[in-house]
Structures are given as structure tokens and as C-alpha cells.
Design brief:
8 strands, single chain, 2 helices, 26% strand, alpha+beta, elongated
Length: 148
Amino acid sequence: GKSGTVKLMESLPDGTLGLGLDDADEDQRGVVIVQIHKQMQSAGWEVGDRIIEINGQEVDEWDDFKRAWDIAKQFGTNGVVFGLVRFGLDTPPEPSVPKCLHCGSKGKHLQKCTNWKHMPDGVDCVFFCGRDCQKEAWKACKQSADKG
């Protein structure tokens, strides 16, 4: 996991964070975000984030979190900085590892294709090893289209 921070300038009107929190697994420190109030979604939280620090105070478990947050929210002027560990923060968004649509091989040699006619749902590009894989994939798509 990679760490990041969320800087919060204010809490919700009722003084809470608007986060549903749960204890982290036993071998992990911090508390895990399981739910996010919609007014707080713009703050940069993501479900699954693990809060491990508030304004530099380490958060090991729920009690630490409560204590650190109680202290932090009294210093309202320059915001509260939450240190967090986000699962997969360092992997780019989908497609996480490009692989050839035809043969499935991965690597730096792949060529990106953004105008593929048979784009799978939710992606804006596909990858091929080269013209040959692209031709083969095209044939395969056409065949399955003809059958259908």
C-alpha cells in the first residue's frame, strides 16, 4: 500500500467527519473507512482508506483515532491533515496492467488502440502486440458477430 494525505478544512456541521470507520485488521494499524457521507466525498476520501495519522499523531486503533481527532478539531484554522494508506494508490486506474487483447501478453511492446470497434465496457482503449494480434482479434470479433 502507498500512503497519501487528505487535508480537511472543516468537518460536517455537526462536528463529525461523516465517515463510517472500522478497526483495521489486526496486523495493520489505523482505522478503515467503510462509508463516506455524501457531503464528505469531495474531500478526497475513498472507501478502504486506512487512516494512520491525524496531524502527525499516530493512529494505531480506534481509541487513538478518537483522541487525535478530538485534539485536531480544536485547531480549526489550518485544517487537519490525515495520513492514510490507500490500497493500490500507486497503481494507475484501469486498465491496471495493459495486456494484448488477442494473446494476453503484457509488456512495454504493446501498442495502444483507442479506436477499436469492439471496445469492452468501461475502457477507452485496448492494447495489441502489433498488427498481427490486432488482425487476429479483429477476425475473432467478426466471426463471433457473424455467428450471433
